């Protein structure tokens, strides 16, 4: 059944492949890139929008008419705020979100500056990893989740009388792309040079777990403005050792089990379908090996296996 997906960080790598495969499945996709939004609906010239050109090229595919591209830089609070307001506008009459539901949000934005050894890294580079891999995705999720409540009564942005007010927008499944480097119980000491990256992903994992717990508490207490039955399933996903330009670094050890973006995304789509909202194993409740609180976030590999936090 066609769904509405929002992919944050879609200009290259696995984010781009997420968009491509979701479109192929017939879904409507809202995707983001860091480049400026064009004034027209035509794809911008590659020289002007850099790495977003591959994303724009998908508008020319058979289902490209189902693709909406917005600007978002998760390392900038102003950009996150502006992006959220653009999403809100899509909830107006005639917009792709007029029914008030985003089935799946994938927060894929990330950075890896190698090496990032803790004993050598600069303040600026460490902060860059934390802003892009941790703070940005979590605050982007926070802003998007706020769309489930009516907009403030006072707004600096005038509402077009043609479109009318925006519909509150709910998110059914919220997916954070994490990494096995972020597991604190399965420490990978041999990954010399991944200190800041691992720290940023470990912090992301803890942050999203707290987010899931907060959402569940608000749901039960009737604080989410959507009713007790309206829940958001929060998942963390490890995409595997994917061959992308971000992972194209010279390492002192052999990386085993390298897979293509196509294989990784194909498998993760299946995991999201099973573990996400309304899935046969929603949130891992059926396959859970131990008792967990309702609404707890769960961590999965691209193969659908539970991964330790």
Automatic annotation (TrEMBL):
The keyword rRNA processing is annotated on this UniProt entry: no
GO cellular component, one term: cytoplasm
Keyword list, A-Z: NADP, Oxidoreductase
Top-level taxon of origin: Eukaryota
GO molecular function: oxidoreductase activity
Gene3D superfamilies: NAD(P)-binding Rossmann-like Domain
Matching InterPro entries: Fungal_SecMetab_SDRs, NAD(P)-bd_dom_sf, SDR_fam
Keyword hit for Nucleus: no
Family in the record: Belongs to the short-chain dehydrogenases/reductases (SDR) family.
Protein's name in the database: NAD(P)-binding protein
Organism: Hyaloscypha variabilis (strain UAMH 11265 / GT02V1 / F) (Meliniomyces variabilis)
């Amino acid at each position: 059944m066609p769904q509405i997906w929002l992919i944050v960080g879609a200009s290259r790598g696995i984010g781009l492949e997420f968009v491509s495969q979701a479109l192929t499945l017939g879904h409507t996709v809202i995707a983001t890139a860091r480049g400026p939004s064009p004034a027209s609906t035509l794809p911008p010239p590659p020289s002007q929008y850099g790495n977003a050109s591959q994303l724009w090229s998908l508008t020319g595919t058979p289902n490209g008419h189902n693709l909406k591209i917005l600007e978002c830089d998760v390392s900038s609070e102003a950009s996150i705020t502006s992006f959220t307001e653009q999403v809100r506008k899509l909830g107006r009459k005639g917009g792709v979100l007029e029914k008030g539901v985003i089935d799946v949000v994938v927060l894929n934005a990330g950075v890896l500056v190698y090496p990032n050894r803790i004993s050598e890294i600069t303040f600026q580079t460490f902060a860059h990893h934390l802003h892009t891999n941790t703070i940005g995705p979590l605050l982007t999720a926070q802003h998007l989740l706020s769309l489930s409540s009516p907009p403030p009564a006072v707004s600096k942005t005038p509402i077009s009388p043609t479109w009318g007010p925006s519909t509150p927008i709910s998110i059914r499944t919220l997916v954070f792309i994490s990494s096995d480097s972020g597991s604190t119980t399965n420490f990978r000491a041999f990954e010399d040079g991944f200190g800041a990256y691992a720290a940023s992903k470990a912090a992301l994992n803890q942050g999203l777990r707290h987010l899931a717990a907060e959402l569940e508490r608000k749901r039960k207490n009737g604080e989410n403005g959507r009713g007790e039955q309206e829940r958001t399933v929060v998942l963390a996903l490890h995409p595997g050792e994917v061959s992308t330009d971000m992972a194209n670094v010279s390492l002192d050890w052999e990386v085993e089990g390298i897979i293509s973006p196509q294989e990784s995304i194909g498998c993760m789509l299946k995991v999201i379908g099973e573990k996400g909202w309304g899935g046969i194993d929603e949130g891992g409740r059926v396959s859970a090996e131990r008792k967990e609180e309702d609404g707890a976030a769960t961590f999965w590999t691209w193969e659908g296996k539970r991964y330790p936090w």
